[in-house]
């Protein structure tokens, strides 16, 4: 089902029904069963509409197989004419009129597709931009979306009109109904075509050509003289590779520029205050005046990097990823750069050991600027989340979901209850049928556990209040008490036992005491969660409205280039604040004992890090990022690989609690969550963190900024030396006569 692009059983049923309707229409046309034909056609229209909404991937795949909406429409038009010929309702003149109208309708659709394509191609500027003032370019508005988009739905309207006319003709025996309906459909199609003609003329005559656009961009480059360029080329799915560096580059105190090579990347890029250029053509890129740029940063190794690497006035830097010890991150291509920037000593050793031609002197450790905002356990660098009745375990796999199913089951059934956050990496669960099936089973396990936990919470609330009067617990704490858990302060996890702000005691110990709850009555706690849920819904609407302003759906690339002449700091600040408030409301809206499945972009991974007391994952950048929090983490040991060999191959594993197949070590893994003194790897995590991510001071963003400044100065010196060597000698070009 997933391979077809169908994401839900309802979509599969709609696809099967659509196929059946087409077969039924073909049989009805051959046999002259007009009523069956009309009924099957109307049902097919409903299936088409449902598939457009629930299975857009299937619709796109059918289009690539030349079985798209237009092809299906043409097939049904042929069947309609065949049916009219079999029924003899229209007569020869009516049949000829119907055939003429159908041909006009099909011609109108073909002309509409051709005009839409011509307008779209003509409006594709040689260079698209964001936050760059190109107001002198005379860029006109695009055609309204109702004229150019939703071709499948427009076709359905035409077909529905024809089917209703056919139904009326079959009912009354009057052929004029079907002819009138076809006239209406063909006329609407031709009117749409005529409405597009002025936009085509305007796009052909008024939109600036490549030379004019490049000249205007060059004028902007000369005025602003960016010193640093963040350059990226790749598919839309890899946009996160450049997005993670937008913040650090925006923090530089000198002018910077982002250059993208694919138009789809410009659409996927998050709003940023940085000026952005999208230059698809290598020829156009070579014509831009980038003589003032001294440092070029490359977040990925791609073949199109060569188009900027050939500029000798820049110092070229590869921003090496891979704190996960993956040797694929090191290849001989890296030696084409002037420097390679890594996070810590581990990255340096990785390149030196690989011996791919990168000199050790050209390797610079800058840390991970993106992680500077993470809350580090026990430091108070950022506000800590409120205490929760149960420890939180974040399971964030990036591959091999079937191996994680027994781990999730063990967490849900552990003797000491915990809260589970399941957040798979976005592509995980969609790469293979096995991963997808395992993902659905894990989700089902969590849903069943939530139902049991909710029942336990209700039972706890129904107990005699006098039993817990001395503790004055909230509804959440009552649920945790009924489940055998204790209140947890996340800041205590990962700290030294003597410094823990809220050590976790054994609930079964005679001297155990419960953490005093923030709210002492169940209605008050429930009211707070209800208010948080209401606030989250309100923030969701406000964020959607703000995104609509930042990403105008009614504007195409050319209009956005014209209208986004400068960033709006107020809008960007408002968007950041709203997202921060949304995350606070999200975590406050759910009972702290409730397991959660997080499949989308929100809550963000870093927000989940702040909630988690323990991470379970596999060697990847996800675990590398979590290491910055100094909280405990566990790594899944692949089947057939011993723990010692696993630790030898992966530096991260040296500070991780190993989890073998079947999660046999789950009991020991969870003990430090309730008693920090049992956390034996606290010191090892600090050592591995410094080895992989670099020292905590100075902050990574400062090291990144200093590295850019130092390399820019080196670039200036290289340019001066180059100019000195290429300058003509004194008196060159003059004739001199000596005696």
TrEMBL record:
Residues 506-525 have a biased composition (Basic and acidic residues). Keywords: Coiled coil, Membrane, Transmembrane, Transmembrane helix. The chain crosses the membrane at residues 12-30, 95-115, 177-201. It comes from the Bacteria. Residues 529-556 form a coiled coil. The keyword Metal-binding does not apply. Residues 488-525 are annotated as: Disordered. This is Aromatic ring-opening dioxygenase LigA. It comes from Streptomyces asiaticus subsp. ignotus. The lineage of its organism: Bacteria, Bacillati, Actinomycetota, Actinomycetes, Kitasatosporales.
């Amino acid at each position: 089902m997933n391979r077809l692009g169908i994401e839900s059983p309802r979509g599969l049923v709609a696809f099967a029904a659509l196929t059946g309707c087409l077969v039924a229409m073909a049989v009805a046309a051959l046999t002259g069963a007009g009523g069956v034909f009309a009924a099957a056609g109307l049902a097919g229209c409903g299936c088409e509409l449902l598939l457009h909404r629930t299975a857009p991937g299937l619709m796109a795949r059918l289009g690539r197989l030349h079985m798209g909406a237009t092809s299906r429409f043409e097939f049904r038009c042929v069947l309609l004419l065949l049916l009219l010929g079999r029924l003899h309702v229209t007569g020869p003149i009516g049949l000829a009129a119907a055939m003429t109208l159908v041909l006009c309708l099909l011609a109108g659709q073909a002309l509409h597709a051709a005009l839409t394509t011509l307008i779209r191609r003509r409006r594709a500027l040689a260079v698209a931009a964001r936050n760059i003032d190109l107001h002198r370019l005379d860029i006109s508005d695009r055609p309204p979306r109702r004229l150019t988009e939703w071709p499948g739905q427009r076709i359905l309207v035409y077909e529905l009109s024809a089917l209703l006319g056919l139904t009326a003709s079959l009912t009354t025996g009057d052929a004029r109904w079907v002819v009138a309906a076809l006239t209406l459909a063909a006329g609407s199609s031709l009117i749409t075509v005529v409405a597009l003609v002025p936009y085509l003329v305007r796009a052909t005559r008024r939109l600036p050509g490549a030379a004019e656009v490049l000249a205007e961009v060059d004028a902007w480059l000369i005025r602003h003289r960016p010193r640093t360029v963040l350059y990226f080329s790749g598919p839309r799915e890899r946009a996160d590779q450049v997005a993670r560096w937008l913040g650090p580059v925006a923090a530089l105190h000198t002018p910077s520029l982002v250059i993208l090579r694919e138009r789809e990347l410009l659409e996927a890029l998050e709003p940023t205050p940085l000026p952005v250029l999208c230059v698809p053509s290598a020829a156009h890129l070579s014509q831009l005046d980038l003589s003032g740029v001294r440092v070029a940063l490359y977040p990925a190794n791609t073949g199109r990097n060569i188009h900027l690497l050939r500029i000798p006035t820049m110092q070229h830097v590869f921003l090496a990823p891979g704190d996960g010890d993956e040797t694929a991150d090191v290849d001989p291509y890296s030696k084409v750069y002037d420097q390679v920037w890594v996070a810590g000593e581990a990255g340096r050793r990785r390149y030196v050991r690989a011996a791919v031609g990168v000199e050790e002197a050209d390797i610079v450790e800058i840390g991970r600027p993106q992680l500077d905002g993470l809350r580090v356990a026990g430091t108070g660098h950022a506000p800590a989340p409120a205490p929760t009745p149960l420890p939180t375990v974040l399971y964030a796999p990036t591959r091999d979901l079937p191996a994680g199913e027994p781990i999730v089951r063990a967490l849900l059934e552990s003797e000491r209850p915990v809260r589970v956050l399941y957040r798979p990496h976005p592509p995980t669960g969609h790469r293979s049928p096995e991963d997808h099936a395992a993902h659905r089973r894990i989700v089902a396990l969590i849903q069943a556990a939530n139902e049991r936990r909710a029942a336990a919470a209700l039972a706890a609330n129904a107990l005699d209040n006098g039993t817990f009067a001395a503790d004055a617990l909230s509804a959440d704490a009552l649920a945790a008490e009924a489940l055998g858990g204790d209140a947890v302060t996340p800041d205590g996890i990962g700290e030294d036992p003597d410094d823990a702000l809220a050590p976790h005691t054994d609930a079964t110990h005679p001297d155990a005491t419960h953490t005093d709850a923030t709210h002492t009555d169940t209605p008050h706690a429930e009211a707070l969660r209800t208010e948080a849920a209401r606030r989250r819904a309100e923030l969701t609407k406000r964020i959607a409205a703000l995104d609509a302003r930042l990403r105008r759906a009614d504007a195409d690339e050319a209009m956005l280039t014209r209208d986004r002449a400068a960033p709006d700091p107020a809008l960007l600040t408002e968007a950041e604040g709203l997202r921060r408030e949304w995350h606070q409301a999200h975590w406050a809206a759910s009972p702290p004992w409730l397991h959660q499945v997080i499949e989308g972009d929100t809550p963000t991974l870093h927000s989940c890090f702040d909630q988690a007391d323990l991470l379970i994952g596999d060697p990847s950048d996800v675990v590398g990022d979590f290491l910055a929090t100094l909280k405990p983490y566990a790594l899944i040991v692949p089947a057939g690989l011993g723990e010692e060999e696993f630790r030898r191959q992966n530096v991260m594993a040296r500070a991780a609690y190993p989890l073998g197949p079947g999660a046999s070590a789950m009991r020991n893994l969870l003990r430090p969550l309730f008693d920090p003194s049992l956390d034996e790897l606290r010191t090892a995590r600090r050592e591995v963190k410094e080895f992989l991510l670099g020292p905590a001071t100075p902050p990574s963003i400062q090291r990144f900024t200093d590295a850019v400044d130092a390399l820019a100065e080196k670039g200036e010196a290289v340019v001066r030396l180059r100019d000195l060597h290429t300058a003509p000698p004194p008196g060159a070009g003059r004739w001199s006569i000596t005696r």
